[in-house]
Specification:
Elements (H helix, E strand, L loop, with lengths): L1 H7 L3 H10 L3 H10 L11 H22 L1
């Protein structure tokens, strides 16, 4: 997605909307759970958009591994 955004150069809000739309349901629900406004407000920069999603995905994976 980063590569595509380098070509498209989407505004931060539009990039965030695209990223949120493409999220797996469990990651989207996790992000809502940790901060109910997290999906409505785009982070301050495109890189922060990507990092927020990466962090949520890593948290979910770590939680799954702890459960095993």
């Amino acid at each position: 997605m980063r590569m595509y955004n380098m070509l498209a150069n989407l505004p931060r809000e539009q990039l965030w909307e695209c990223l949120i739309t493409g999220l797996q349901a469990d990651i989207r629900e996790y992000m809502k759970h940790i901060n109910k406004d997290s999906l409505d407000l785009a982070p301050a920069s495109p890189e922060m958009c990507f990092q927020a999603i990466i962090n949520a995905g890593m948290d979910i994976e770590n939680e799954k591994q702890r459960e095993q």
